[in-house]
Amino acid sequence: MTKTKTPSALAADDLELDNVIDTLSAHKREIMIGGIVVVVLAGSLLLWRLSVNQKNDRAERALAEATNALYAGNRPLAATEFQALADRYRDTAAGVEGALILTQLDFEDARWADGLKVLEAIKQSSVIENFRAPVDGLMGGAYADLKKYDESVKHYQAAADESAYQSLKDVYQADVARILALAGKKDEARKIWADLASRPDSPLVAEAKVRLGELDAAPAGKN
Predict the structure, then answer these.
(1) Are 192 and 176 spatial neighbours (Cβ–Cβ below 8 Å)?
(2) Local structure of residue 163 (DSSP, 8 states)
(3) Domain range list for the chain
(4) What distance in Å separates the CA atoms of residue 113 and residue 119, rounded to the nearest whole number?
């Protein structure tokens, strides 16, 4: 009698493959939708990147045009173009740079309120992180000229804290010391100058020693 051949057992891999195929077949609609979503998201990301690049390019061109107007001696036109750049392209590096130049023009003309307004606005930029120190530094200088020494010290100290490099920190710390001395807080100023004078690698070491000599030669001020 001929024996009937018993079918061989399916391998585990074959079973798993069948399960995968069954799952794909059962959920093919969801998978197709998911694939479409991925494609749409990828396309949206690409368009966003292109838009950002184009915006940055336009901002760079606007900055170049405003700068050329300034170098050509047309200060009113340059100021107008820098203002438009700061307003329209605030969230680009070129827009922030334009705002800083505009602020300097305002301060040169003693338009302190106008310049400070520009700086306060640019602080809301999404790319402000790399510009915080120069923004606070300019604000510190403006408040010093306005003789608002407490505000000046606050912003100069913020600029020192925000600077990535020790040499820049020292520059702003020296500004803090000068303003403290102007405000009559000579003991506080002396502490800063003493610290700067104690570090041979500081770019302010020479001035620090001179300032210490001046402070020591004068009667100690009241704080």
Answers:
(1) yes
(2) -
(3) 51-126, 133-223
(4) 10
Kindly state the helix (H) or strand (E) to which residue 146 belongs, with its residue range: none
Please give the structure tokens belonging to residue 101. 């130049």
Q: For residues 177-201, give the mean pLDDT.
A: 95
26-29 long-range contacts, Cβ below 8 Å, gap at least 24? none
Q: Take residue 39 and report the two structure tokens written for it.
A: 């494609």
Higher pLDDT, 23 or 58: 58
How far is it, in rounded angstroms, from Cα 13 to Cα 151?
Answer: 73
pTM of the model: 0.73
Cα 45 from Cα 30, distance rounded (Å)? 22
Please tell me the total number of residues recorded for the chain in this structure.
223
Q: What is the CATH number of domain 133-223?
A: 1.25.40
CB-CB neighbours of 182 under 10 Å: 15
Question: What is the maximal distance between C-alpha atoms in the chain?
Answer: 126
